[in-house]
Amino acid sequence: EITYNRDNWTLAGIGASLFEAYEHYDHHRGMTSGALADVTFRNSFTIGNDNVSSEAHKTFGPINGLLLENLNTNGSDDAMSIQTEEAPEFAWPNQSEGDIWNVTVRKCRGQSANRAAGAGIVLYCANGYKFAGMVFEDCTGHSTQGAGFAITYGNTFNGGTVEDLTLRNCEFSTANKATQFAINIGCPVGILTIENDKTKQSSNDEVAVLVQGAAYIKIMRVRGLFFEDANYPSVVTRLWRIDGEISSLAFEDIRVSGNASMFKFMEVSGRVDNLAITNSNLDNLYRVVKTNGTGRIDAIDLSSNHMSSCPSILELTNVTKPTKVVMNANTFTDVG
Predict the structure, then answer these.
(1) pTM here?
(2) Which among 220, 244, 278, 313 has the fewest CB atoms less than 10 Å away?
(3) Tens digit of pLDDT for each residue in 246-283?
(4) If you count DSSP H runs as helices and E runs as strands, how many of each does the chain have, helices first?
């Protein structure tokens, strides 16, 4: 079924189809689709109306097989959203909902402006449904007021999960330092893989990546994270903030050069069972890892790294449980 209403195209119950080279401007909700199997959207533009709460590209479950490729999306609210369910206040009659499987988003751009709730690219988890087999490659997401990329319940949902998600060669950013983050993780994830991350720490950002208190991540792997020669201002204090819980968090091939003032690579107010940072260059940092308040890390492996101009590598303030620290084959220059 393909319909046009409320200033947008709506596709529902579509299988084995290609939608290509469409253009839609000045819309309220540009391209909305749901109940899809083996569907491709490619080489298209959806640009919203800045005078209303516009959303450029919305996709709802159930889905099994979806490719979004080379899409340019621009909205005053969420530019590109993939949702297991729509919030009741916005849902249309008989709106589809369900699990989302096997989705690849490649070479897409999400640009959100004007609204604090809006994200460049966002996954909305809802009410026991799940995402699985999610891959984002060579994508950019930017928001003036919200997050560049977000995994969230939003203001309505709870109970949904993401089984596995990969972000590869992506670049996310936000211009709102007060309440938002380049990457904002706000619900449970089974396996989260970030490869060759190009997330930007703009001059207004304080935290680039946030794992919220509501998030529990079983396995998080980060390979190739680059924050070099960025001329960070003195207000920047940490790149990663962990408020939730992560069972296994591993960084490899990280290149970070801070401002050596109060700059920390990671700050933990939640819990990390096992943290590893290996084969990385960590330079000009006030701390590599710091815990705050009840923040806790059970085991840390810092091996095969180069660290320079760092007054102190670790600051672990929670003494209720000792932290096991392993440091092998590192090279140090001017490290306290």
Answers:
(1) 0.90
(2) 278
(3) 999 999 998 887 665 667 889 999 999 999 999 999 88
(4) 0, 29
